[in-house]
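TEACHING EXERCISE
Course module: macromolecular assemblies
Task: Read the component lines below, then compare them to the predicted structure of the full complex.
Student: A.B.
Group: 4
Components provided:
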Amino acid sequence: MSVIIVFLLVIAGFAGWWLSHQRLMTKPWLEQGMAGDFVALDRSALPTAKIGLGVFLAVVGCLFALFTSAYFMRMELSDWRALPVPRLLWLNTGVLVLSSVALQCASVAARRGQIENVRLGLATAGLTALAFLIGQITAWRELTADGYFLTSNPANSFFYLITGMHGLHIVGGLVGLGRTSAGAWNGARPERLRLSVELCAMYWHFLLFIWLAIFALLAGWAATFIDICRQLLT
Amino acid sequence: MVDITPADAVPPAEVAEVELYHPHSWWTKYVFSQDAKVIAIQYSATATAIGLVALVLSWLMRLQLGFPGTFDFITPEAYYQFITMHGMIMVIYLLTALFLGGFGNYLIPLMVGARDMVFPYVNMLSYWIYLLAVLVLVSSFFAPGGPTGAGWTLYPPQAIMTGTPGGQDWGIMLMLVSLILFIIGFTMGGLNYVVTVLQGRTRGMTLMRLPLTVWGIFTATVMALLAFPALFVACVMMLFDRALGTSFFMPAIVEMGEQLQHNGGSPILFQHLFWFFGHPEVYIVALPAFGIVSDLISTHARKNIFGYRMMVWAIVAIGALSFLVWAHHMYVSGMHPYFGFFFATTTLIIAVPTAIKVYNWVLTLWRGDIHLTIPMLFALAFIVTFVNGGLTGLFLGNVVVDVPLSDTMFVVAHFHMVMGVAPIIVIFGAIYHWYPKVTGRMLNETLGRFHFWVTFLGAYLIFFPMHYLGLMGVPRRYNELTDMAIMTESAHHLNSFISIMAFIVGFAQMVFLFNLIWSIRHGREAGGNPWRATTLEWQTPETPPAHGNFGKELPIVYRWAYDYSVPGAKEDFIPQNVPGSFGPSREPA
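Instructor-supplied answer key:
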């Protein structure tokens, strides 16, 4: 359970940092009126939707941290046989990086008001994300063709489970991306479009980050890394 | 330090107005409503309805325990199903849904001075997915093989095997699907509660001016958002084991002389995941209760809450610590002695902030102008009950005491006191307190007092003797103990007595439900602020609050939520949206 504990410590650190800016040491029973500096404490200047997405991504991060914890705990049992990582996953990783970059470009374009570039970025991101999904399914088919079935070993089970959850996460993102694209083609208000493109970009960068983490996990580097850390500590 | 700006210098409604969704038809106003107040009532009504099912299940269990051998239809399988569904419904579908979905939805926007939740559409979806989860749960009663009988902790391997009711039928599948749906629905609602507290607060409502109710619900929601994923992961993996034949949790096992296809899985892994959710869940239910009780005590004792800052810090500290104690539910599963030591220590440390809260409640009462209204009675009952249940928690937190007591009725008595009776008593107090705001009428006083005394005394007569049964060694989870040496004559009599009390307490809840329905039409007119309280929900222009909560302009907050009996003030309470300062007590101490 150490992975989830570390993840929660990061969240707790962030929450602590935020709380420390909220003047929790004040004595509210002595202070009345509208103090001038209270205005800054009322709410964050960030758009509410971004904060909402941030909280949601923290929950998703928690979910994947828990899968990782379970992975490490199950891995220690004797019947674990690591499965070979299909080389196709490298290509998929590249495609997903491309998708994230495209959305970043769309986000920059939206800030500059270049609607054509926004559309180009959104379309590229959507297509590359679909290509990633197709690539993942192909990787699954390769594995099953080689005899690595879901039930034959826990390593396989985890591989399908975690990549499947990540795929669902992308499908959810594609719904949001679809709505944003509809707005981009049907002439949504610029500031509204800009916000939704930025939200998509945020979601996609997180998606990529999660993918890199689970790729490292499934390929076995994460375990090696933890072993090195453990040796350094002992 | 004091009165930095003159009040009239503040321009009104500087906060950007939220785009409010306006319903156009009866359906969108009352059924598919996006108004947090309607969603709150939908949540509460659904939770109460499913809670009644759990109440009936507890009666059936008590029939069997109190009068063993009398009722043929309560087979051992049926008894396990009753236990499982009673526990699961009460903890998740009633308490969590009612505190966060019900009170959270109703009180957060009103108390922080918002017109609605920040994502009303998502909020509506949250309720409908919750309803779907409840319906899937209920459908398992009618599925072939009935609901699951795996115990509310659903431990594998037994949960998905033939011997357990529902294990190889539909029961366990429906249970897991229902939980997954509940978590998805809750996450949608939870995002709303958190972000509304962060971003929806009106001008002047700093974090340290929030009523403790909001602090409790807010912290509990943050915890729930981080803890429920653990249950989600456990459910998904168990669903894979059951439906697709993987071996995440299932070891190699022989069932009815046949080797199952599972191999090498770890049941302990499930326990870790489950309790990583399960322990924070205790506080997800307790923290809103802590917050609400603080407000009830302060309002009905006409005195400011003692140690507001400590109360806030204690809520946050309890929330953080509760993620580090989960394995104290697993002492009997076997663990390294150092781990046992670690988890016993963290468990005992939680008692410190919790005790601070109890002291502060008592010190708030000290020399207060105590009005023994029904909400106050329930609040006082909560303190007693919670202290009682908390103290036995200290026993069970220690490994050496827990191991012999773990499988006895002592544990049943402990957790019912601390997370069954105590939070439900707060829910009752809160309903008596806020019902006038929700409906515009008071609940009937006589029926209310009857309900209080029967519930409070009756719950004690049920669960206090149960501790003694546990100390005698009476095991839990057994549907019949007639021929065992520990079951002396007196233990049988005690069991029958507990059962009779359970029926009486259950009957009192019917009186309460009658009161809830009857008072909507026939209750005394309450007016806008019957308890003369300071918080914003009592200052709305209309009662019940209209769509948008606060009329044309949002209120501006000038003070904290606890200005009761301020010396020099005209009345013994100053609402949060009243400017100006009063009297000598305002000098820095």
